[in-house]
Amino acid sequence: MRRLIFEILGVLLVLGSVGFFFASVRFLADRDYIAGILEIFVGFALVRAGLELVKLGALAGDRGTT
Question: How far is CA 24 from the centre of its chain?
Answer without folding.
Answer: 15
